[in-house]
Structures are given as structure tokens and as C-alpha cells.
């Protein structure tokens, strides 16, 4: 499931990017879906498949997690997804009853072969809608965790991921890398004491 990825006690608003991480994700996925390059059922959970049988293509709000795993040179770990052939950060949807921290550990293990430990939340992103080629609508909200490598050997799972490797920051502008990745990596590398989120735009009617 594409990462187009909540509970924060201390957060600080970020400056607005020219295009936010999830806005870029939504734009890229909508474009790819229209072109028939997104496998609409790739990596879908049994829970989501059953839910789709009940609600059809109606809009679903989808909680997701993304892992920022850095090496000693601050290179970020990315995976090459089989359904679109582009590089993204490890992550995916949170299963029913699953804690977000467990979800990011599980997804990272499944997609990269690494056992990681979440150490902090670097950002929370959302508010952007994706429509897939089959008509399904999803709006993702994504919690991004910086994670510390504990054990394991890098390896793709051979199904959802075809390759796994670390990338330098300057390489993130490559067209082979999803357009939203650079934004969340830059936020994570700021190493702020609190998480980044997009500044609110809603206000009570009486104050508008």
C-alpha cells in the first residue's frame, strides 16, 4: 500500500513547502493510476479488502506509518516498489488493533529485512485524497517515525519490494524516487525536539 502517511503530545508547526509531502504523493498516485500503472490490489490487507466489499469505492480515511532509517552518513533507507517501480520510504497501513509503533516495525521488517526501533515521531501529514484507477478513493494520514536499526540484513521481500538501499540527500530529486520522499527526509534531518506538522488553515466561523 503506498505511503501517503496522529497522537502527539508536543508538536511544532512547520513552514509550508511549495508542495506538501502527501499532496505530491496524491498527485503522483492519481497520475499513475489514471495511466494504469498502479496495481489497485497490491499489498491490500484482508481488513481493507473486506471493507471495500461493504462500502465499494467510497472514500476511506487510511492511517499509515512511514519509517525514516538513516545510516551513519545520514543516508536514508528506501525501497523500490514492484507495482510502480519507484523508490519510497518503508511503511504502510496500520492494521486493526495495531499500535502505530508496532506497524512501523512490522512494515520495515517485511519490506527491508531490518528489525528497527522507533525513537521519535518526525512528522504527521494528511489531508490529501487519492483516487485509484478502479475508482477507489482514499485519504491518507501518515505518521513518520525515525527508527534505529537493531538487527537484520537488508533484503527486499520479492513481492512488494524489489530492492532496498540507502540514498544520499542530493539523490532524492531523482525521478525514480517518489516526489514526497524528499520533504519528509528534510523534516527528519532537522532533528527537531518536536514533530513537524502542516499548519492549520481552519478557524471558527466567528473569527474568519
Give structural attributes.
208 residues, alpha/beta, Nucleoside Triphosphate Pyrophosphohydrolase, 6-stranded mixed beta sheet, 3-stranded antiparallel beta sheet
Characterization of this structure:
There is one protein chain. This protein has helices at residues 21-34, 46-55, 100-112, 181-189; strands at residues 11-14, 60-69, 76-81, 87-88, 91-93, 114-131, 137-152, 161-167, 195-198. With 208 residues, the protein is α/β, with parallel strands linked by helices. It has one domain: Nucleoside Triphosphate Pyrophosphohydrolase (Alpha-Beta Complex). Strands 1-9-6-7-2-5 form a six-stranded mixed β-sheet, with helices on both faces. Strands 4-3-8 form a three-stranded antiparallel β-sheet, with no helix packed on it. The chain is globular and about 50 Å long. It starts with 10 loop residues before the first strand and ends in a 10-residue tail after the last strand. 36% of the residues are buried. Mean pLDDT is 82; it is low at 1-19 and 32-40.
Strand content: 25-35%
Q: What's the gyration radius in Å?
A: 17 Å
And the CATH topology?
A: Nucleoside Triphosphate Pyrophosphohydrolase
Distance between the termini: 38 Å
List SSEs in N-to-C order. EHHEEEEHEEEHE
Task: Specify the number of helices.
Answer: 4
In terms of per-residue confidence, which ranges show pLDDT below 50 for 5 or more consecutive residues?
Answer: 1-19, 32-40
Amino acid at each position: 500500500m503506498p505511503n501517503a502517511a496522529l497522537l502527539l503530545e508536543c508538536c511544532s508547526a512547520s513552514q509550508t513547502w511549495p508542495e506538501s509531502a502527501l499532496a505530491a504523493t496524491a498527485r503522483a498516485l492519481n497520475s499513475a493510476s489514471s495511466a494504469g500503472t498502479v496495481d489497485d490490489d497490491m499489498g491490500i490487507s484482508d481488513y481493507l479488502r473486506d471493507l471495500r466489499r461493504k462500502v465499494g469505492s467510497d472514500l476511506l480515511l487510511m492511517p499509515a506509518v512511514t519509517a525514516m532509517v538513516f545510516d551513519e552518513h545520514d543516508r536514508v533507507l528506501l525501497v523500490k516498489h514492484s507495482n510502480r517501480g519507484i523508490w519510497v520510504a518503508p511503511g504502510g497501513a496500520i492494521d486493526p488493533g495495531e499500535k502505530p509503533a508496532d506497524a512501523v516495525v512490522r512494515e520495515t521488517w517485511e519490506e527491508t529485512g531490518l528489525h528497527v526501533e522507533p525513537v521519535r515521531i518526525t512528522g504527521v501529514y494528511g489531508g490529501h485524497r487519492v483516487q485509484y484507477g478502479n475508482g477507489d478513493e482514499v485519504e491518507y494520514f501518515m505518521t513518520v517515525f525515525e527508527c534505529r536499526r537493531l538487527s537484520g540484513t537488508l533484503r527486499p521481500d520479492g513481492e512488494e519490494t524489489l530492492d532496498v538501499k540507502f540514498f544520499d540527500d542530493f539523490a532524492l530529486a531523482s525521478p525514480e524516487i517518489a516526489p514526497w520522499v524528499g520533504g519528509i527526509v528534510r523534516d527528519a534531518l532537522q532533528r527537531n525536539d518536536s514533530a513537524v506538522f502542516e499548519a492549520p488553515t481552519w478557524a471558527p466561523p466567528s473569527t474568519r
